[in-house]
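ok so i was messing around last nite and threw this chain in just to see what happens. nothing serious, just curious
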Amino acid sequence: MLTVLFDGIATGALLFMLALGLSVTLGIMNFVNLAHGAFAMLGGYVAVVLLKDWGVPLLWCLPAAFLIPAAVGMVLERTLYSRLYGASPLDQVLFTIGIVFASMAMASYFMGAQHQIIQLPPFLGGQFHVFAGFDVGVYRLFLIGVCGAIALLLHVVLTRTRFGSQLRAAVDNARMARGMGIDVNRLFAITFAVGSGLAGLAGALGIEILDLDPTFPVKFMVYFLIVVAVGGTGTLGGPLAASLVLGICDVAGKYYISEVGAFIIYTVMVVMLIVRPQGLFGRPAVR
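result:
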C-alpha cells in the first residue's frame, strides 16, 4: 500500500507539472490554451534529440527542454496568441486546437510516429529499500522533489515579488495597469513563455513514465483539463492538491481494480466537481 501511495504521489507530481503551465495561462491570463500539450511534446522531443543524437546528459537537457519551448511560446504569443486576448472562449479553443493538429503533423514528419524511449543515468535509475515491503524509485523521488521546488518557486514569484503584483494587477484590469505605467504586453509575453517552458520541462521529465509520440498533445489533453477543473483556477494550491488526489486514485485504481482502473480518474473528477463545482480551492460564483 505504501508503494502504491508513493507511486501515486509521483504520478500526481508529474500531472501537476504537466498542467502547471495551463493553470498559469488559464487561471492567471484567462486564456484557454488547449495547445499546452504541444509545448510539453516539444520539450520531450528536445530532450530526446539532445540525449540520443548529441549525447548530452539528462540533467543538462532539462534547461534546454524549458528554454526552447519558452522561446517558441513567446514568439507565438507575440505573433498569434495576443490577437485573441479578450476573444470568446470558443475562438480561443478553435485556434489552439488548430495549433495542436499542426504540431502533431510536424512531430510526425520530423520525428516519426514511434514511441520515444530514453536511458536514465545510473544515479536516477533503480530503487532503494526503505523497509520490508516498501521500495522507493529514485526517479520518482526525483520527480517529487522537482515538482515541490517548482511549486514553491512559482508561489514566491507570484505572491512575493513586484512582477507577481504587476501581473495580478494586469489580469484584473489591464487598462488601469497600463495607466499606472505597467507594460502589460511584456508581462503577458513573459508569463506565457514561462507557462510554455514549464510544459516543455514536464514533457522532458515525463518521457520515462508517459508515452512520447506525435499524439501526445491530444492523448494527455484531458489530464491537463481535469487537473485545472478539479483544482480550480487562479491558484496553485488547487491544481497541486487535485494532481496528488487524482494521481493516487489513478495508480490505486489500476493496481487494485485493473479491469476498470483507467476510469477511476474520471469517476473521481465527476464526484469532486459535484461536491465542489468551483474546484478544490476555487471561490464560489457570486450570484
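not much to say yet. Residues 2-111+154-275 form one domain.
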